[in-house]
Amino acid sequence: MTQVPPSPSHGPVLAIRGLRTEFRSGRNWYPAVRGLDLTLNRNETLAVVGESGSGKSVTALSILRLLPEGGARIAAGNIELDGKDLLTLSERDMDRVRGDRIGMVFQEPMTALNPTMRIGDQVEEALRIHRGLDRAAARREALALLEEVKLPSAAQRMHEYPHQFSGGMRQRVVIAMALACRPQVLLADEPTTALDVTIQAQVLSLLDELKRTYGMSMMIITHNLGVVALIADRVAVMYAGQVVEEAPVRSLFAMPRHPYTEALLRATPRVDEDAGTLAPIPGQVPSIRAMPPGCAYAPRCPLRRPPCETEVPPLQADGDRLLRCWVRNNERIAA
Amino acid sequence: MSAPTVQDAGGHDGLEVLNLRKEYRSTGLFGRTRRTVRAVDGVDFHVPPGGSLGLVGESGCGKSTAARCILRLAEADSGSIRYEGLDVRAARGPALRMLRRRVQMVFQDPYSTLNPKRTIGQTLEEPLHVHGIASGRAAREAARALLGEVGLGTDAMERLPSEFSGGQRQRIGIARALILGPSLLIADEPVSALDVSVQAQILRLLDELRERRGLSFLFVSHDLGVVRHICDAVAVMYLGGIVERGPVREVFDAPLHPYTKILRAASPVPDPAARVTMMRIEGEIPSAAAPPPGCAFHARCPAAFARCSQERPLLREVVPGRAVACHLFP
Ligand SMILES: Nc1ncnc2c1ncn2[C@@H]1O[C@H](COP(=O)(O)OP(=O)(O)OP(=O)(O)O)[C@@H](O)[C@H]1O
Ligand SMILES: Nc1ncnc2c1ncn2[C@@H]1O[C@H](COP(=O)(O)OP(=O)(O)OP(=O)(O)O)[C@@H](O)[C@H]1O
Ligand code: SF4
Ligand SMILES: [Mg+2]
Ligand SMILES: [Mg+2]
User: Fold this and answer.
1) How many A×B Cβ pairs under 8 Å?
2) What is the pLDDT of residues A289-325, one digit of tens each?
3) Interface of B with A in 160-179 (CB under 8 A)
4) CATH number of the domain bearing residue A230
5) ipTM (interface predicted TM)
6) Is-above-0.95 flag for pTM?
7) Does B281 contact A198 at a Cβ distance shorter than 8 Å?
């Protein structure tokens, strides 16, 4: 049994500082994550939200050190788990961290499952590797875990293969495997994006419940603001490889401050409100090879002023939130 | 918007679908078990001229199959489909050609339906040649004008599909659907693959086109928010059948069918205050290959009673303009 060291019930468990992750194209390196600062507190659910290409998955892969070999590198920054920098660990120690201390759930459950192995055997294997249980104990624990993720008739279905399961059931199995090691942190990258909405609601409430019973911290990556509103305690909005706004979930939705956060909300068609209010965001997320020199959002921003297009705005504290915007940060100073 | 509603059936206007059925027979995983999937199992709806009907429901409920039958991309087993007074299922020769001009399709992934080796100009002009509507300079002018209308520069004429982003490709897909001047667009998840910002751009474009050209829409989507935005009426499908139908605002603000209630409650809204309604939703979506007897939804339904597992409820009007298939509304 791994003993999780007793730790305070709040404060950061994961702290990312100044992370810069780059990809190579020809002779040049281009940053997809550009000086990212992000902390995940104990017992907290942090949602990272942003459009396609904003650097969410690259951030997750950087934390796990699973970036593609060769064409990718972490050029700067550190990533501390419980005060220990993951970027300095040996490959072997890092292997332990993955799965032992950080559980992972990705969008497509089949990437985490072995199609030729029975579901129960896969969960058992995870338990034997990460918790060092013997066969009989692993079997008992596997069944308990599958019941915990609410796999219907778990005792029978654990003898089936992944292809016999629906997408939602597969994702439950992946969650059971991620929990096998009782991780401190659960990292979930678009865990419900491939699922139907009723199944999405089931999986999200399961994650929320498990987070509480296990006392975990959860970082959930999504492009869906509705999912954020459902599950997050705190939200980081990413744009072009940076956090542009970070706030407690209620403040963020009640009063978005960054022009991009505001624009995202106004561009989301809502099932609970009438049409007519939908406002598209002009233009597109910039490519990592053509980053605007100043504020990355400036080319699309209705509020931009002279400093915006030439100088990068800093991420500054603003009440209960962090904000990266020349105009909005100055409004507050002026007030 | 004061578009007509779905319910003013009767005339020969617009699109009228009655008791549409389509089965697929397939062999099981190891070629042993044969199964029949009732993909569309007796569906009725009406899209009036200038109206837009959303077809919503979860994966596998038969939305695309219904759309494909109307376009004759799949042949229905039974039922009637009429468009502008024409019998769609029986149409041959000139009648079918006329239909192909009047009814057009927009797909989720336009890239897979665009020829990667042909320029956008060639792709847009081709239907004009095939239908003998225009050629040469006239065809080129029509294509250019349309590119402007969907918000692309005319320099797109000489470029290949691979040179465009997802949102731009969807604009091209829409331009191609419009080139023959259709009156009905059938769009199957046209914005599902797009980011919110681009999605909103395309929805705005579709709104404008509808207004300017008086188009009708049959809009297939699993996203209730998108449907609320673009449609005036909605039909909710579950396992091949329509469970509820009515004006979009009424159905989503006060759903009647227990499945619509669950679907609506499970659809995330960007408002943490709505979180309390993250209710317990039980059960998996059953397979259309083994639909339960009685009401297809009874196994998951929190309000089910004895009759629900025995008798299939029929879709009937319960409030003017709103129809529900549920024994709670006899
Ligand atoms: N292996 C790679 N090689 C080169 N560029 C990459 C690679 N992986 C990601 N990128 C680039 O890095 C940027 C960030 O990508 P990332 O996958 O993190 O986006 P994301 O926010 O997860 O988007 P999505 O919502 O689409 O998953 C993008 O511009 C992407 O093109
Ligand atoms: N060509 C086919 N052959 C066999 N079965 C099919 C075929 N097309 C559809 N089906 C089956 O018919 C049912 C309805 O499928 P359909 O594609 O219409 O659903 P849908 O509502 O469009 O779902 P989605 O939201 O996933 O697109 C499903 O059970 C599907 O597996
Ligand atoms: S810094 Fe300027 S361009 Fe950037 S979001 Fe703020 S106002 Fe807009
Ligand atoms: Mg991603
Ligand atoms: Mg479909």
Assistant:
1) 136
2) 999 999 999 999 999 998 999 999 999 999 999 999 9
3) 165, 167
4) 3.40.50.300
5) 0.87
6) no
7) yes
